[in-house]
Amino acid sequence: MQKRSFKLFLKALWTHYLSANVSDSASVLSYYMMMSVFPIFLIVGNLIAFLNIKSAIVLNYLKPVLPSSVYQTLAPVIRSFLEQGSTGTLSIGIIVTIWSASKAVAAFQRSINQAYGIHNTNAVISRFFSFIFIVVLVIAITLLGLLFGLSETLMRLAKPWFQISPRLTQFVGSIKWPISFVGIFLLGFILYAIVPSVRVKYRYVWAGALVTTVGWLGLGQVFSIYIRYFENNVTSYKTISTFIVLMVWMNLAGMILLIGGVINATIQEWFQGEIQEMHLVNQIMDSARQSRKKHLAKKQQVGQPKATVTPTKAKTPPRGTGKVKPTTRPKTRSQLKTKRPTTTGKGPKTAVNRKHDTAKK
């Protein structure tokens, strides 16, 4: 029974994988990710340059995530971004990042919706949601980068007041792997919880986020080993090979990200059954509409005066009369003509019969 259930789960996983079209969607996603990487470095670099943070601190957090050849190529570019900042490049970086990253999120959302079985979505709401999400994501990444970069500086400044030991300072600088793991996991969890246009259960999201985190970190190590053994053969075309490796790495990273969404969709359908379509924006609008209706109903109840129940008194007849005459319709001429009653047998005589007998006599 367990073997049969596992086979059914794998079959459902393969069905969701095919419906999401992971291979083609990963290529589109990697293309827009490639276009948004350098503008993000522009934004973060210009913001960090104004705070006088050393570029070596930021590069220490990027080194365990990126492959070695990619890191060697990007390190001088990132170092120049961090050491030279200007408002012009900052504004250009923000515009290009918002455009390319919103396209990447839109492609990711289409693929994840197809994995959940949702094919028709509102394009306007999806694009607006992608724009808002990208703005929030860029702000979060910037704040996270500033926090990582300022951690050692803040501890160095707080050392005279709080008597922080040098071991603690070294420990904060050496926890790059745990911080990278937690950062990627939180990013994947937020993506899988907010981007799909369905009612996502949070207890089914962590599995895909965990697979994405382990896959990304393992992918970086695999590419590092690959470059370590084959870097001597690509010295003549080092720049071209670096960009090829970067594109392949981003393609595989996008595929891992989509596979995490496919796993979440399969697990939710396996345990919950039918997946309900619901966009986050529509959900917010529905909740706001319901709260407004409740507020208006409560306001109407407060504005209306309370109805006082008064006891009804019995109607008394007017003076000089015995009983209240019921109001009846006037009789017609045919109704006024009454038939003369007849008596049969020796029954008791009524007043009309007695009058009739005296008239005969």
From TrEMBL:
Keyword Manganese recorded: no
Q: Which Pfam families match?
A: Virul_fac_BrkB
Top-level taxon in the UniProt lineage: Bacteria
- Which parts pass through the membrane? 30-53, 128-150, 175-195, 204-227, 239-263
What keywords sit in the KW lines?
Answer: Cell membrane, Membrane, Transmembrane, Transmembrane helix
State the GO CC annotations. plasma membrane
* Membrane-topology descriptor: Multi-pass membrane protein
List where in the cell it is found.
Answer: Cell membrane
Which residue ranges have biased composition labelled Low complexity? 305-318, 341-350
Using the UniProt record, give the first listed, main subcellular location: membrane
Q: Does the keyword Ligase apply?
A: no
This one is known as Ribonuclease BN-like family protein
Instruction: Tell me the organism.
Output: Secundilactobacillus collinoides DSM 20515 = JCM 1123
